[in-house]
Amino acid sequence: MKRFLILSGWIITAAFTFPVYAADDLEGRVGRLERIFENQSGSDLLLQVQRLQAEMQELRGLVETQKLNIDKLQRQQRDQYLDIDARLGTNHSTAPQTPLPNSVVDASGTSTDEPAPAPVAAPIAPPSTGPIGIPALPQPETQSGNERDAYATAFALLKERNYDAAKTAFTQLLQSYPQGEFTDSAQYWLGETNYVQRDYPAALEAFNQLIQNHPNSPKIANALLRIGSIQYDQKAFAQAKISLEQLISRFPNSTEARLARSRLERINDNAP
């Protein structure tokens, strides 16, 4: 009987203690599973972050490559413009007119077919003392030659990317020959020099002076396009739109007008 009571007590004690041990073991397993899950989640997040960082680095490399290609194309385009303008500059001046060898002009201004006399050196005329009293003007060939040399020097500095010296040379040319044969070209390339140096206020001033002082210059379309581009880059979209529309109105069939239309499309797409 005594043994039975002892055995029963053991059975009852085991019955009550077993659920406690089972519950403790289950809670431990759940804790371990949670820790494993947390570790796996952290590892997955770390892998995702590393993968995103690698993709971002690759995209940065692509962007940098594209930027270098764009810069190279812009330099090539600028060099082409400079080369074209240099070629045009060499033929910018008109050839001096000489009388035909078999004709002369009489006092009344009519041409005759008399043989022309042998050419002789023309003496330098002193200041006129006649009734009109207008002093003799400088020899145009000498003045044009000096201006041409100054323009060629300034342009060579620009081609060499010596922008500070080129800006000084163009400015001096404009001061020495305010109504010269190359004044409009010098004014335009002064604006381009400032633009390359990102001195946008000075560039706008130079281009606007070209438009105001030389309304018939062949470089007006380029100046208007450059003004619109600067205003666009400065996010002055309303002003850029006016400049580009003016360019299209004045030069509808030009290459500059086509570029202006493309820029206007961007402005309209970004309009609120």
From TrEMBL:
Domain YbgF trimerisation span(s) in chain numbering: 26-96
Coiled-coil annotated spans: 49-76
Each TPR repeat, start to end: 184-217
Compositionally biased region (Polar residues): 90-101
InterPro entries according to UniProt: BamD-like (IPR039565), CpoB (IPR034706), CpoB_C (IPR014162), TPR-like_helical_dom_sf (IPR011990), TPR_rpt (IPR019734), YbgF_tri (IPR032519)
Feature: compositional bias, Pro residues: 116-129
Domain Outer membrane lipoprotein BamD-like: 146-269
Keyword annotations from UniProtKB, A to Z: Cell cycle, Cell division, Coiled coil, Periplasm, Signal, TPR repeat
Gene3D superfamilies referenced in this protein's UniProt entry, alphabetically: 1.20.5.110, Tetratricopeptide repeat domain
One term under GO cellular component: outer membrane-bounded periplasmic space
Keyword presence, Plastid: no
Region (Disordered): 90-146
GO biological process, alphabetically ordered: FtsZ-dependent cytokinesis; protein trimerization
Cell compartment(s), UniProt: Periplasm
Pfam families found in the cross-reference section: TolA_bind_tri (PF16331), YfiO (PF13525)
Job of this protein: Mediates coordination of peptidoglycan synthesis and outer membrane constriction during cell division.
Family, as annotated: Belongs to the CpoB family.
HAMAP family for this protein: CpoB
Name of this chain's protein: Cell division coordinator CpoB
Annotated organism of origin: Chromatium okenii
